[in-house]
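Notes to self after the call with IL:
- keep both proteins in one doc
- input above output, always
- annotate only the second one for now

Protein 1:
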Amino acid sequence: MPDPVPLYGPAYKRDPYPLYRRMREAGPVHRVEFPSGIHAWLVTGYQAAHAALNDPRLGKNHALGNANWRRLASIMPEPQHSALQVHLLHQDPPKHTSMRRLVLDAFAPRRVESLRPRFQQLADALVDELPETGGADLVAGFAAHYPFRVLAEVIGLPAELAARFDRDWGKVVQPVGPQDPGRPAYEARLRGLQTYIADVVDRKRADRAAPGWTATEDLLGRLVEAHDAGELSRAELDSMVFQLLVAGQEPVTNQITTMVVTLLRHPDQLARLRDSLLGSSPDTPRDSPRDSSPDRPGHDPGTLARAVEELLRHDAAFELTTWRFLAEDDDLFGTTVPAGDSVIVSLCAANRDEARFPDADRLDLDRTPNAHLAFGHGIHYCPGAALARAELQVALATLLTRLPGLRPSPEPGEGLDELGWIPAVLARGVDRLPVAYDRRA
């Protein structure tokens, strides 16, 4: 058996695409290693990834993992591990089908579009708090807060509970081995998050008892209702709340950063997109109006949508899928994979496959068609994709039009090459994004 390819380290996290290219050229399946010695089989290439995401042999339930996988991959300490890990990402039909049905109405495209003006208000409020001139850290000042504020509105998280949420709790998805010096802090985060989830459940149960409550606009209340009716176990309820609070915001935060970083590395395309959003030509003075709505006069609403799709393809925040397993030894694209070994699909590698996307490493904001896999595919396609797209469109348009002259920070140690990429196994993004701009419009 070949030595596993390491998928970790600063160089890899900064730019994994050359490695993905070499792996695609060598074949569709590779044995890889993650931090803490976790091994998996990685699927690369668009055709293979698409097939794997739709392969009924590949189950998501952790019970399918073999003893060796469970020994290495339980990144959450027991007994908490099972208590927050039985959400949608780790379920198979029919349980997956019934659990997914509970969340679809809240994230339906029609409802998301009805909330877009509110998303714009939330984005503008955050930009209003940035310095008027000079520059700012777009993670601390915008990306770390905007997706959570949107999410709180969409799922029915009360303002006082939203104010208590500690973004540091999201780090529980980053592996910390049992012997790691950071393990005590990791476990403290997990306990804090579990206490918070219990408080959310208690509050929503009280809300449901109030006169006039309806499930239509209150996803959290609907989940508590499903638990009380016997549709969800308490572990499933807590896991779904956990998934909403962490997976429902962190990928969007990270995607905002990867999109802005990509545009800062392509200033000509940034300027072209901004001019399009303002309904102007490159020669028009860039005096951005307050209204950055994509339906304003002179603006092609498809321009922003196409740009966001291409930025998702070019550098997706959800780099790798979560684990999948074969129930028995079987062939996977010419490689025999043992039962219970973890199989992971590289969405980023698939989205840069030249066989599917001509000139795949080139950023083309007008690329069409653009059938990328940034939100997955098949029955585990991201149920919040419509919400994420709306958030990203509003965020990008707001930052580009309200921060004229947006550019990388000129300060020493804060350039694009010095950015610190988060060490999460599955995700891409930066933890700081210092930028400069002429003024806050």
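Protein 2 (the one to annotate):
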Amino acid sequence: MSMTSSVTALLPELVLLLGAVLCLLLGSWTPRLRQHRVRVVAGLVVLAFLGTAVLGLVRPSTTAFSATFTVDEATGLLRVVVGAALLVLLLLAGDEIAGHPRESEVYVLLLLGADGVLLVGGTTDLAVLVVGFLLASIPLYGLIGLSTTAAAPEAALKTYLIGALSGIVLMLGASVLFGLAGSTAYADLDAGIGDAPVAAGAAGVVLLLVGLLFKAGAVPAHFWVPDAVQGSWVTTAAFLTTVPKLGAVLAIARLLEALPRESVWPTLVAVLAAVSMTVGNLAALTQDDVRRLLGWSTISQVGYLLAVVAAFPGSELARPTLLLFLAAYAVTNLGCFAVLAAAPDRTRIDHWRGTARRRPGLVAALGVALLGLVGTPPTAVFVAKVLTIAVTWDAGLAWLAVLVAANTVLSLAYYLRWLAACISAPREQAEADVADPPGRLTSARLAYGCAVGAVALGLAAGPVLALAG
């Protein structure tokens, strides 16, 4: 493939990269009190990115730069979902971070982090995977560290330490697989691992998976997620619980497709999925801080996504189901954090007592988002979870399908506890202590929009599945 064709195939990613550089330069020459200009430019960059991404959807599948990056329907939908998420995040940042001395840097880090996620999700080469992992991780550390909360330094340090260790493990796994296959291309892993000693192949794959599980926020590399969600800006929390997971889960799916089909890797992913969803739900049951609750909730949601990935070798419907689930999870999870951004001082469940009387629209949006994460019709996650149970059963993983259903019922307990507080009678002292700050109308409108989007995507699940192949 020619250099021109490769550049054309990766045009959306290049738009984000050049846009991040432009925002960095513009921020350096813009007075601190006028950093909103950088946000406007970042928004225009994301719109241009979305335009090129949509154009890429109508083109046939291809590869770029010696088949190290694949542009197919999965990459195309990932681009669209990430682009839409970036627009939501930029609007949230305008409500929450406007006027901060490092406002422009936040926009640059969001664009660079998203670009790294796209590389991770679209690559079919171990070397590019390592580069994408680093590009997706370093901006994440910066976003958490820039947050103004008292817990931000500890959260950033914990995320960095676990991320650095996971990156080393991922690079070690890539090195082992390169040594066995004699190539960094995914296409050569099947033969390379099949001819290699079992222990060596297992070590390489497991090490690679551990690194990707950090980006996904899944067990066993999940300990940083609740602290990072609690200790950072809502904008940052929304980013780290949504965008990196999309690319990481898709990367795990691509890796699983490249491994020998008769191997035990689908079973390993299924076990990781079961543990992640169960640990996340059980931990969320005990949380009173709503951010930590959502942090543990996202860990459980990754478990459901990995359950679909485990079904890849055994079900043809698994791939479109995963792509639908990624889009459904993104819009629903962003809706939860948009609600938090609209009421930032309500950090504990008890603070939400009686909120339905004062802000019925916001509580309605929260209800749609939380019940959407459970999988309540007609939301998009409902369709995705029904299909998840179907594809895992079809792939011979009946026990995993049962666990998906059981964990879905278990998650109702903590989501309903939050909603019950919203509609209960307020305590006078609590009502006096917690007041919603003015000027968060954009976040509230985003919450309404995400709620509508979660329902609309559920109603339009058929066309989305057809687009996903």
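Annotation: Residues 264-469 form one domain. Residues 152-181 form the longest helix (30 residues).
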